């Protein structure tokens, strides 16, 4: 694009009274680079290099002591033989499958609810955003209290409405993951709500007015105007939420520490345990590679689906 | 903009000083009275009084030495020390928080060989030296030797008109716990007969120590009776249920210090904790100490424990002073200092016992402390220890949370250890 338009633009410009016109043309490029460079350097040094290094590491046996040794696919073999890896892979998928749709649904719902003139609007928007900026450890601790099997408000409420044997939540293998998902949706909804609110502002009100004139009801307006209008936002939210979901770590570590047993152990936690606690950098890198492929795969699929929808 | 150069200069100067500090010659000082700064790794200094007590006492005896603690968060201690050592850290004395980590560091050659040094010690007076023996070589010396006992709340026993828990069997313990479960504390909390902390050792290490079972074997039938007992107490409401203790991150100290439990199996490190809480006025618990309950009555008391030790970094800057510190801390003088604050030293002698004033004055507490007993290591040391520990922990959670039957949990733990670790 730039290659073709730049000369055309320059032609239209009046000739500039400078002594060294060829050098001037370098300036925008240098300026551009100087803006990118600090950030790029940081990215390259702290993200790109470690990533490539991590990739290489997954084919090595290397602990913090001793020298690296090239072992080929040994780490992957070991990973596939480890039952905890499969459980963590399944748990990660389970968490993402619950967390992504729920978060999007709840945050979109909140955004629609708060995208109108309403008394105390600012208060509500802040209130829903607040969990996102609250310390995650505090969030986890508070939800653990709410989910307390004996005296927690959640189970007291369930008993009040007639559930005789409410679940033990984080101490039950069946309910621990749903409990974690609920807490994480609650925490994240405010952030994505703000994104959706911004998206809603971009939809021209004339469209709604025209639809009203044509006699479209609320559902039809939502389906035919709001949703298509929000598509770029939804796409962005979906990608961000997917990446965040697959990388979930801190909330789980504080709420359940992967337990009971291995019921909520996710890949990122396994990477931490194998890498930092056991000092098996190679194995941890191999698991990270799987996580990377998983996230990249889902992101690419979403891009492809999005492009197909746009082309339709 | 103009401020930057001076700020940069300041940073440069600061790093130059730091770098200079790092690259100072690592050789030993020839003059024994020349000032030395000895660095010692430690965790949670404010909650682990033994460190400051030992440091102060050593400094008083060696005026030329200043001890600079390298404080590390207790939970992150093993990872942090491993990372430090991998990065060529030169901290002189390294505290070995447990034997498993010790084996790792020693096998990697990160600790100075202390075999000759150990040879000069009065070995028969130092308990817990054996686990540090790696093929006849030693790289650490224990200064603290904890073992598990049964703490009990005298006031609650007396109020219920029950005799103090002197050399119980597990059956008697269970019966007592159920009888003591009643009423509420001043804060309106339920009073439990006993409290089992969430650690797997409470059940598994106890079973291993008293049946002679091997926690690394993959055959865990010997856990069964102890699990049956723990679950029965929990189901009867005589012990706080595991799920609540885990999810609410219940602190065993507050359970005992606020009188919410009449009994508590726990390690002897807690003696110093109770002493500190009472001195600080945060607890008024009338406490005593009894031997751990046993499978059958009349025999020698079997319990488990773990030593804590000091080692010298292979890359230490002041190796000789470091050895001097270890000689002090693990010997009689250090032991007296430790005993004075209620920490159980590895070194024992009559003088040390006399200095141990943290115990209640009753005969039972004294017997518990001084009687002959068999102290098994909490977890055997080997290359696979930490992997087995992870599996045993996971299955322990499932059994205690009622998510798996005892038999299934024991079988799965064995299968996983045999298939994935051994």
Structure notes:
The complex is a heterodimer of chains A (312) and B (422). The radius of gyration of chain A is 26 Å and the shape is globular. With 312 residues, chain A is mainly alpha-helical. In chain A, strand 1 (60-61) and strand 2 form a beta hairpin. In chain A, 74% of the residues lie in helices and 1% in strands. In chain A, 29% of the residues are buried. The longest helix of chain A is centred in the N-terminal third of the chain and has 32 residues, at 26-57. Chain A has a two-stranded antiparallel ribbon. Mean pLDDT of chain A is 87; it is low at 1-10. Chain A has helices at residues 2-12, 21-24, 26-57, 74-81, 83-114, 121-133, 136-146, 153-160, 176-201, 205-213, 218-229, 231-246, 250-255, 267-277, 281-311, and strands spanning 60-61, 69-70. In chain A, helix 6 crosses helix 9 and helix 9 (176-201) runs antiparallel to helix 12 (231-246). With 422 residues, chain B is an alpha/beta fold. In chain B, 43% of the residues lie in helices and 17% in strands. Chain B has helices spanning 3-22, 49-61, 77-86, 99-107, 115-119, 154-159, 170-180, 204-211, 224-235, 242-247, 252-257, 270-279, 319-330, 332-340, 350-355, 363-370, 385-400, 406-421; strands spanning 36-43, 65-72, 93-96, 133-134, 137-138, 140-153, 192-194, 261-267, 287-291, 301-312, 373-377. In chain B, strands 3, 6, 7, 8, 9, 10 and 11 form a seven-stranded mixed beta sheet that branches. Chain B is globular and about 65 Å long. Mean pLDDT of chain B is 87; it is low at 1-29. The chains are: A mainly alpha (312), B alpha/beta (422). The A-B interface holds A 64-66, 81-83, 141, 144-145, 147-150, 168-173, 259-263, 273, 276-279 and B 78-79, 82-83, 85-86, 108, 110, 241-244, 246-249, 386-387, 390, 394-395, 397-398, 401-404, 416, 419-420.
């Amino acid at each position: 694009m730039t290659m073709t338009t730049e000369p055309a633009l320059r032609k239209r410009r009046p000739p500039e009274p400078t002594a060294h016109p060829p050098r001037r043309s370098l300036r925008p490029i240098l300026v551009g680079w100087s803006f990118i460079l600090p950030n790029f350097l940081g990215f390259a040094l702290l993200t790109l290099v470690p990533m490539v290094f991590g990739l290489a590491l997954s084919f090595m046996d290397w602990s913090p002591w001793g020298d690296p040794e090239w072992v080929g696919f040994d780490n992957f073999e070991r990973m596939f033989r480890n039952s905890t890896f499969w459980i963590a892979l399944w748990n990660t998928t389970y968490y993402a499958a619950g967390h992504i749709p729920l978060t999007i649904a709840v945050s979109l719902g909140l955004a629609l609810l708060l995208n109108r003139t309403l008394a105390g609007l600012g208060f509500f928007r802040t209130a829903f955003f607040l969990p996102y900026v609250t310390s995650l450890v505090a969030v986890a601790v508070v939800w653990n209290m709410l989910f307390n099997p004996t005296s927690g408000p959640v189970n007291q409420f369930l008993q009040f409405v007639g559930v005789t044997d409410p679940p033990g939540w984080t101490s039950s293998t069946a309910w621990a993951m749903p409990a974690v998902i609920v807490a994480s949706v609650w925490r994240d909804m405010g952030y994505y709500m703000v994104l959706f609110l911004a998206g809603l502002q971009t939809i021209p009100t004339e469209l709604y007015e025209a639809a009203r004139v044509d006699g479209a009801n609320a559902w039809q307006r939502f389906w035919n105007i709001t949703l298509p209008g929000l598509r770029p936002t939804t796409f962005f939210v979906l990608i961000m939420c997917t990446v965040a979901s697959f990388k979930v770590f801190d909330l789980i570590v504080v709420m359940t520490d992967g337990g009971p047993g291995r019921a909520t152990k996710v890949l990122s936690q396994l990477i931490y345990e194998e890498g930092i606690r056991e000092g098996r950098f190679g194995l941890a890198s191999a698991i990270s590679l799987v996580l990377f492929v998983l996230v990249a795969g889902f992101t690419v699929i979403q891009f492809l689906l999005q492009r197909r929808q746009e082309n339709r | 903009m103009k401020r930057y150069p001076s700020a940069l200069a300041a940073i440069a100067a600061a790093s130059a000083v730091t770098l200079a500090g790092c690259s100072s010659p690592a050789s030993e000082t020839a003059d024994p009275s020349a000032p030395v700064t000895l660095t010692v790794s430690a965790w949670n200094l404010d909650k682990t009084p033994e460190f400051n007590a030992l440091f102060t006492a050593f400094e008083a005896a060696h005026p030329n030495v200043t001890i600079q603690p390298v404080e590390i968060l207790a939970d992150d201690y093993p990872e942090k020390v491993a990372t430090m050592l991998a990065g060529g850290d030169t901290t002189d004395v390294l505290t070995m928080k447990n034997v498993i980590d010790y084996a790792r560091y020693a096998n990697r050659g990160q600790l100075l060989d202390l075999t000759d040094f150990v040879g000069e010690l009065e070995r028969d007076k130092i308990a817990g030296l054996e686990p540090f023996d790696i093929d006849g070589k030693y790289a650490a010396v224990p200064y603290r030797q904890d073992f598990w006992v049964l703490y009990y709340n005298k006031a609650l026993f007396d109020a219920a008109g029950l005799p103090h828990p002197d050399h119980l069997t597990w059956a008697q313990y269970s019966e007592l716990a159920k009888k003591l479960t009643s009423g509420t504390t001043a804060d309106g909390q339920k009073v439990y007969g006993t409290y089992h902390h969430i650690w797997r050792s409470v059940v598994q290490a106890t079973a291993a120590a008293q049946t002679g079972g091997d926690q690394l074997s993959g055959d865990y039938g010997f856990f069964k009776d102890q699990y049956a007992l723990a679950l029965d107490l929990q189901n009867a409401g005589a012990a706080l249920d595991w799920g609540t203790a885990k999810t609410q991150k219940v602190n065993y100290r507050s359970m005992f210090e606020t009188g919410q439990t009449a009994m508590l199996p726990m390690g002897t490190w807690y003696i110093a904790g109770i002493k500190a809480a009472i001195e600080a006025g945060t607890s008024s618990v009338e406490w005593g100490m009894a031997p751990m309950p046993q499978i059958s009555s009349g025999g020698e008391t079997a319990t488990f424990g773990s030593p804590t030790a000091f080692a010298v970094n292979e890359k230490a800057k002041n190796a000789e002073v470091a050895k001097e510190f270890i000689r002090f801390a693990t010997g009689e003088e250090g032991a007296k200092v430790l005993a004075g604050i209620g920490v159980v030293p590895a070194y024992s002698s009559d003088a040390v016992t006399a200095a141990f004033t943290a115990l209640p004055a009753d005969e039972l507490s004294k017997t518990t402390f001084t009687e002959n007993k068999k102290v098994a290591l909490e977890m055997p040391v080997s290359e696979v220890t930490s992997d087995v520990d992870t599996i045993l922990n996971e299955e322990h959670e499932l059994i205690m949370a009622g998510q798996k039957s005892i038999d299934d949990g024991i079988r799965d733990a064995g299968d996983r250890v045999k298939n994935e670790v051994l």
